[in-house]
Amino acid sequence: MKETGLSEEKIRNILDDSKRQDLKYEHVLSSMCTYPHRIAVEAHMQFIESNMGDFGLFQGTYNLEKEVLSMLSHLLHHPDASGYTTTGGTESNIQAIRSMRNLFLQRSKCDKPNLVVPDSAHFSFDKVSDILDVELRKASLDEHLRVSIDSVNSLIDENTIGLVGIAGSTEFGQVDPIDKLSEIALKNNIFLHIDAAFGGFVLPFLEEVYKFDFLLPGVTSIAIDPHKMGLSTIPSGVLLFRSSDFLESLKADTPYLTVSTQYTLTGTRSGAAVAATYAVMNFLGKEGYRKMVSECMDLTHYLLKKLADMDVHPLIEPVMNVVALEVPKSDIVRSRLANEFNWQVSITQNPHGLRLVIMPHVTFEMIDSFVQDLKQVLQTI
Ligand code: PLP
Predict the structure, then answer these.
(1) pLDDT of res. 82
(2) Is the CB of 355 under 6 A from ligand 1?
(3) What number does the ligand 1 atom closest to the CA of 225 have?
(4) 217 prior amide bond cis, ω within 30
């Protein structure tokens, strides 16, 4: 930091210049985030100084958080759920597994707890494993890229604290057979966390019904991210538990604050993101999210139709607006799309493919232009 501050004008110029270097979402087909809704941005700005880490000072924002939790608890079919707003899927996953581990260790002696996750689990579970010293056991996937129930069963032992099911996997947008995972969890008396960070704001609004939430009796916690398909601002995640015991197991005393205990991972938390989530959820309502999801799915099917005409096919029939394509040399295709045409796409690891996420910022014109560019790359690969 310099001794003397810069002028406002100079700072604005630097910021404008930096902003110009950021990619616009109009070139992005790889991200699970998008432009937040206008009303979310307004609410975010209005509550910019609000700190939910000391919510006794911010009673109004705290009430908004309670409303957000209540709306999502109802959406996920368990009005009595307890939880809090996190910074996103990673924090929700860490805290969900931490509470599982704490409750498991309260009732059983165990030197090395383990957790069974699908091979398609987000890399946040590798962080979970490292932070919590819980062994990660990765269950293989079936031909539809859903977790194999046989593989899950074979990995469970007396040190297994619980299972993870994915409702909208990062790479494939696939939904695990969560009804079966729920049965296994109940049979083995272990916990079941559902990572619906992406799919939580998609599945309830699709025409086809997928069972993935608290309606299934074995499901003990769910991560759902308003800052992905919820159109809220970053950082906005939500973690919900079936019972308050889970939250209690995360309790820390906070002697110098206006509230005497915290259950969260971070101390200071964004009240702005809470207000943003409240605003957009109330503005759109279920009807608005249904429309948004339906538009994303229309675009997804439009893309698939155009690609089929070029003999490019998806690895699985997409459940949601995530498409993994069978494309040879996908890593080279990805970098050529970026270098020659300024498109950001990503690749899947296992199996290899080209991955596109059709977020609400995507338009028919974007897809037409992308398909044309992809065709050119594939012709010369
Ligand atoms: N879980 C899933 C299924 C995800 O797709 C992601 C991110 O894309 C995460 C967790 C992590 O979310 P965040 O980046 O908000 O921490």
Answers:
(1) 97
(2) no
(3) 15
(4) no
Q: Is 314 close to ligand 1, i.e. is its CB under 6 Å away?
A: no
Q: What are phi and psi of 373, to 5 degrees?
A: -70, -40
What's the length of the chain?
A: 381
Torsion of CA 116, 119, 123, 128, to 10 degrees: 10
CA distances to 75, 101, 342 from 201, in Å: 10, 27, 29
Given a contact cutoff of 8 angstroms between Cβ atoms, the answer to whether 231 and 218 are in contact is: no
**Cα three-residue angle 120-122-126, rounded to 5 degrees:** 105
Q: Are 73 and 80 in contact (CB under 8 A)?
A: yes
pTM score: 0.97
Comparing C-alpha atoms, which of 95, 148, 85, 81 is closest to residue 125? 95
CA distance 165 to 147: 8
Residue 151 contacts residue 185 (beta carbons within 8 Å): no
Mean pLDDT per 10-residue interval, the chain, length 381 residues:
97 98 96 98 98 96 98 98 98 98 94 96 98 98 98 98 98 98 98 98 98 98 98 98 98 90 96 98 98 98 97 97 97 97 96 97 98 97 87
Determine phi and psi for 188, rounding to 5 degrees: -95, 0
Q: If you measure from the C-alpha of residue 31 to the centroid of ligand 1, how many angstroms do you get, rounded to a whole number? A: 10
Between CA 22 and CA 31, with CA 26 as vertex, the angle to 5 degrees is 75
Residue with tokens 């049965």: 183
Q: Enter the tokens of residue 285.
A: 């309502």
What integer pLDDT is reported at residue 259 of this predicted model?
87
Cα 114 to chain centroid distance, Å, stands at 23
Tell me the C-alpha distance between 41 and 375, whole Å.
37
Domains and CATH numbers, the chain: 8-37+285-378 (3.90.1150.10), 38-281 (3.40.640.10)
